[in-house]
Amino acid sequence: MNDNADEGKGWQIAAEVVSSAVSGVPTPIQQGALKAFSRLCSALIDIPVAHLESFSEERRAITEARVDSIRATSHAISNAVEIDPQYALRISHKYARKIVGRQKNVDAVVGIAAQQLTIDAHEAQIDESDGPGERAEVSDDWLNQFEREAESAESEELRARLGKILAGEIQRPNSFSVRAVRALAQLDQETARLLQKLCSCAMTIKIPMGVGRVAEARVCSVKGDASTNGLAIFGLSFAALNRLHENGFVIPDFNSYFDFSISVAGKARACHPFEFNGSEWALVPSGETQIRTLRVNGVQLTHLARELLPIIDPIPVPEYAAQLSEYFSTRNVQMTKLMRATPPEQT
Looking at the predicted structure, is the pLDDT value of residue 54 above 60? Predict the structure, then answer.
């Protein structure tokens, strides 16, 4: 009785969170959210939204049918195998608990995604006049694969990351591949820690700026070639990089390069800022120095890692940040943090 009450209360809270999030985001995103949440979340059965009434009735019917099916299955098992009916019933209940447990994991992930949509609503920068036919939708195949991974999300950390992926996919469909979802779900704790360190130290270029997809991301070798342990003092030893490579997060050449002259500010040139540790930066030339090229060697993140980078929370890396600033100073440019415009408050 208490378990049922707790589950009912949990689903009611999840429903309130989802309903609030859906009503607080731009219309184009709202439509994608309703599709994804109705596909994944059992809590939507109780959301008092008119256009979900038919879906709610269908889900209730399915739920009742499953209960009847479990009872019928237990009787069938006991009759066919000639075992104690109570034993067969316990088997059925065990299977039912497993199903409920999986759904509770999915509901928890959906609740986090709903909260993330609310947080990100003012940053989405999507025209609310866009019609449903003008935007891509989260595909059913993607949702099916995502649901499989979310069902086994027992840890709060994994739920949080999957929730961010779902919110990101709803806002910008096709941002996360099925491979990225699987890779995140299968990460062991140590590799997850190394990936967070890698992303926290990475310089990234987004196209378009700020809200676009990560086109370039690398960790600059500020203390020599990374393949000879140049980044070891920052927690990214050669062995650590090999582990990241084995998991598909960095390319095998630990000393490749990218021309970051696009991030150099100048009177006669456009500047494309880069992101580092959660902030946007530009490179300002010292004096009258003319910067034509700015080759930065280091460890390049793969497409898979670049997909996941936006949902990995950066951790402070003050020692590396200081060395990166010094690295650019020796090349006659200064790292300058850019201030992001504060969106106007909604009334």
Answer: no
Helix (H) / strand (E) containing 279: strand 279-285
Nearest to 221 by CA among 255, 264, 251: 255
Q: Tell me if 181 sits within 8 A of 169, measured CB to CB.
A: no
Q: What is the DSSP letter of 300?
A: E
Residues 172 and 242 in one domain: no
Q: 13 is in which domain, residue-wise?
A: 2-183
Q: What is the pLDDT of residue 220?
A: 98
**What is the residue whose two structure tokens read 């499989």?**
148
Number of alpha helices (DSSP H) and beta strands (DSSP E) in the chain: 11, 7
Classify the phi-psi angles of 31: left when phi > 0, otherwise alpha if psi is within -120 to 50, otherwise beta: alpha
Residues 10 and 96 in one domain: yes
Q: Is there a single domain that holds both residue 179 and residue 193?
A: no
HSE-up of 42 (CA within 13 Å, CB side)? Answer: 20
Q: How many domains does the chain have?
A: 2
Q: How confident is the model at residue 213 (pLDDT cuts 50, 70, 90)?
A: confident
What confidence tens digit (pLDDT) does each residue in 89-122 have? 677 777 778 888 889 999 999 999 988 988 887 6
Would 343 be classed as within a structural domain? no
How high does pLDDT run on average in the chain?
81
In this prediction the pTM is 0.76
Same domain, 235 and 175: no
Q: Which two tokens stand for residue 197?
A: 């360190």
Where does residue 309 rank: exposed (0-12), middle (13-18), buried (19+ CB within 10 A)? buried
